[in-house]
């Protein structure tokens, strides 16, 4: 998306946006600039990092050279999810679609290798391919091989050439869980041309909220193309297997000790979290902190950071046992977030203590597990969800590490308040369920053939 932003800014400055008849020329300029910038994007994507899954020989898929379907006599439903978060959000939808139509081939594309690793858990339901880069030739090759009947895009991953090429092939494009923040709306409104170039190829928008829908309409989307389905992220399913896994992990970590988890942390944030934990330990010396770094390449860095700051630290993949003196537990695995949150008493959501740099992450997983939620004051990526949780009493905003420590200590000292806060968080999830059924209803006409 950084490439798109850079290219769009260049195009806007070039003044071509003022004349709609110049759209073809603008797309050419965009493609040329993308060609120049692609090596830098690919370098960051392919750069070897510790614990990051490798692309291996599959890198060619980013240029449309992907394997044929297992049954190359069939057509496929194409679902694009950028990375891990989008794959997790799309999983209930994928399972529901396969339940409705067991013979329907579903191809899930991701841009990242971490996203591919998440899709692998669904390999009995879907086939995975890497998303072709936003060059018309790459997308055309992909379409020729996969032969998709429709493209479902999770949320807002919109690439100009991809949308244009897919539309040219008369393949319906539906945006699932569509959202448009006020900030994004103002940006598109300022440069209406950019939005028009993307939106004219979209067949249907299934929006999360009325506010999202109204923003899209104000930008010129025909209201006939828009339906409000809610967010399918609220339809998160907590299976008995996941609950059991969380209980078993809690037994390993210590059933009676207070445990809190810092989920999806980012560089620069772990230091603040460890400072908060140091304050907690002064009054609750038996407390345990589970840290889950957002990116796998940071697992070792965060482990070393905790050790160097004097914490008795154990990582999940090590052969060390967690004992009473262990104060920090590093979750250096992928795909176990629900299990890890299930083993904790309180969940702090990372990406929220770094100002506007990240904008927070999704609090619905801890909420669905009835855990009290804590967040920093930067949560614009999930503003509506977080605000609902705050209003219900299921989430507390902690602008600084001192606030985080204070609220942890208050909750650990009051189990009744902790349980009530968890119930309030769960109530928000339960109240908003149903988006999956509404989404399936809207998709039925497209996926039925």
Secondary structure layout plus pairing:
Layout: H1 2-13, H2 23-46, E1 76-80, H3 84-100, E2 105-110, H4 113-119, E3 127-130, H5 136-146, E4 148-154, H6 160-168, E5 173-178, H7 182-190, H8 192-199, E6 204-207, H9 210-218, E7 226-228, H10 240-253, E8 259-265, H11 270-283, E9 288-293, H12 299-308, E10 313-315, E11 328-330, H13 337-342, E12 346-349, H14 364-368, E13 373-375, H15 383-392, E14 395-397, H16 401-412, H17 415-431, H18 435-447
Parallel strand pairs: 1-2, 1-4, 2-3, 4-5, 5-6, 6-7, 8-9, 8-12, 9-11, 10-11, 12-13, 13-14
List keywords for this structure.
single chain, Rossmann fold, 14 strands, disordered N terminus, seven-stranded parallel β-sheet, globular, 449 residues
TL;DR?
With 449 residues, the chain is an alpha/beta fold.
Could you explain how this protein is built, in words?
The chain has about 450 residues and is of the alpha/beta class. About 45% of the residues lie in helices and about 15% in strands. The chain is built from 18 helices and 14 strands. The chain starts with a helix and ends with a helix. The model is unreliable at about 1-20 (pLDDT under 50).
Compute the number of structural domains: 2
Please count the helical segments. 18
CATH architecture of the largest domain: 3-Layer(aba) Sandwich
Distance between the termini: 33 Å
Major β-sheet strand ordering: 3-2-1-4-5-6-7
Q: Helical percent range?
A: 40-55%
Number of DSSP strand runs: 14
Q: CATH superfamily name of the largest domain?
A: Glycogen Phosphorylase B
Which CATH first-tier class of the largest domain would you pick? Alpha Beta
């Amino acid at each position: 998306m950084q490439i798109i932003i850079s290219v769009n800014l260049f195009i806007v400055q070039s003044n071509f946006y003022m004349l709609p008849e110049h759209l073809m020329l603008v797309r050419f300029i965009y493609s040329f600039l993308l060609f120049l910038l692609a090596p830098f994007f690919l370098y960051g994507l392919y750069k070897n990092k510790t614990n990051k899954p490798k692309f291996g020989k599959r890198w060619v898929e980013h240029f449309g050279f992907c394997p044929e379907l297992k049954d190359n006599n069939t057509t496929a439903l194409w679902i694009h999810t950028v990375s891990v978060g989008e794959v997790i959000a799309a999983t209930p939808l994928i399972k529901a679609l396969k339940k409705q139509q067991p013979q329907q081939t579903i191809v899930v594309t991701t841009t990242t290798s971490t996203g591919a690793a998440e899709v692998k858990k669904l390999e009995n339901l879907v086939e995975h391919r890497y998303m072709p880069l936003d060059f018309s030739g790459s997308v055309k090759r992909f379409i020729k091989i996969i032969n998709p009947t429709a493209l479902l895009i999770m949320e807002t991953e919109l690439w100009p050439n991809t949308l244009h090429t897919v539309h040219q092939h008369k393949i319906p494009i539906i945006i699932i869980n569509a959202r448009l923040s006020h900030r994004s709306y103002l940006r598109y409104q300022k440069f209406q041309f950019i939005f028009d170039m993307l939106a004219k190829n979209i067949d249907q928008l299934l929006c999360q909220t009325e506010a999202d829908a109204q923003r899209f309409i104000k930008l010129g989307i025909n209201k006939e193309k828009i339906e409000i389905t809610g967010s399918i992220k609220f339809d998160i399913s907590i299976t008995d297997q996941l609950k059991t896994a969380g209980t078993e992990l809690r037994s390993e970590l210590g059933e009676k000790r207070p445990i809190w988890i810092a989920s999806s942390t980012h560089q620069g944030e772990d230091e603040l979290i460890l400072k908060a934990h140091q304050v907690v330990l002064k009054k609750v010396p038996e407390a345990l902190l589970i840290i889950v770094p957002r990116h796998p390449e940071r697992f070792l860095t965060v482990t070393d950071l905790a050790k160097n700051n004097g914490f008795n630290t154990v990582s999940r993949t090590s052969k060390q046992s967690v004992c009473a003196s262990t104060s920090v537990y590093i979750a250096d695995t992928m795909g176990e977030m629900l299990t890890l949150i299930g083993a904790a008493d309180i969940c702090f959501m990372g990406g929220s203590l770094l100002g506007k740099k990240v904008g927070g992450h999704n609090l619905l997983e801890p909420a669905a597990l009835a855990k009290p939620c804590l967040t920093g004051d930067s949560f614009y990526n999930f503003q509506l969800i977080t605000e609902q949780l705050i209003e219900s009493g299921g989430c507390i905003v902690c602008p600084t590490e001192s606030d985080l420590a204070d609220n942890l200590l208050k909750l650990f000292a009051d189990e009744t308040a902790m349980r009530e806060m968890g119930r309030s968080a769960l109530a928000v999830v339960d109240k908003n369920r149903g988006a999956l059924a509404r989404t399936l209803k809207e998709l039925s006409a497209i996926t039925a053939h």
